[in-house]
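Lab notebook, bench 4. Still working through the backlog of constructs that have no structural model yet. Next entry is a single chain of 309 residues. Request: give me the structure tokens for it.
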Amino acid sequence: MTAAIKMLAYGVSADFMDEYLRIGESTAIKSLKKFVKAVVSIFSEEYLRSPNNNDIARLLAVGQHHGFPGMLGSIDYMHWKWKNCPSKWKGQYIGHTHDPTIILEIVASYDLWIWHAFFGLPGSHNDINVLERSSVFSELAEGCAPPVNYSINGNDYSMGYYLADGIYPSWETFVKTIPAPQDRKRQHFASSQEAARKDVERAFGVLQAQFAIVRGPARFFHLEMLKDIMMACIILHNMIVEDERHTYLGANDFDYDQIDNNGPKPVSHNPTCNLMQFIERHNSIRDKGIHSQLQADLVEHLWQLQGQS
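Model written out:
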């Protein structure tokens, strides 16, 4: 375990363990494989779970506190360089960086907890390609995720959203910034959205700072091994967030223990297997009209909060 954790935390090669712990290279690699598989199999149900009712209520309260009612987090992706990518696969794994990379997509909340992780697509993909393959909205489309009811500027909504950058599509489940805003209302919205969306960038930075193995190039040859390493690092990251969350509280942070019980709450929902209902939910996720209306309501809402403050 010492060899495995040292390789994860410091990103050192396996043969370095021979000098420090008197463990051979092959034994260190085998220990790392067994350790990450054990972490994923034992703790993924708890630390890679989708938000439950209590989690959603807490996320909604945090979003309300920061001026974004209905927000469930921020979404983005990063590239992990694959140094020892097999030569026959290099063409599909080379993207804009001209090196083979593997993509990690995550959804992170204000406290840096990672609620969704999708890893393994070749680096030649972009945000839209990754989104089409991702399972981030699978439960919502299948009716397994509870709808989120909230109201902004007098309009009612029943689906939470993520803050995203400009390349993401104009769906009801995304709130993007306004490029080149012209008036003060939209300028204030753009700055607020961009500031709040930095949560996912902070999560990437903290993950790479804690586990240098995902900051440097991946040295292993097998993709399944890299998936286990990435998922294990995310699980350990969430464990650290859970343990140290109370230390994050500052002058401008939200106290998780002070949640308004009268605030927006998710409602129970029974999943159905009806094909027409699945298509209807699938189309509602991609509704561009509601996306524009939601963005306009948030512009007015944030401007009113600015005036009140």
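Notes after review: Confidence is low (pLDDT under 50) at residues 256-269. The beta strands are 71-81, 101-108, 114-122, 150-152, 155-157, 161-163, 174-175. Flag for follow-up if needed.
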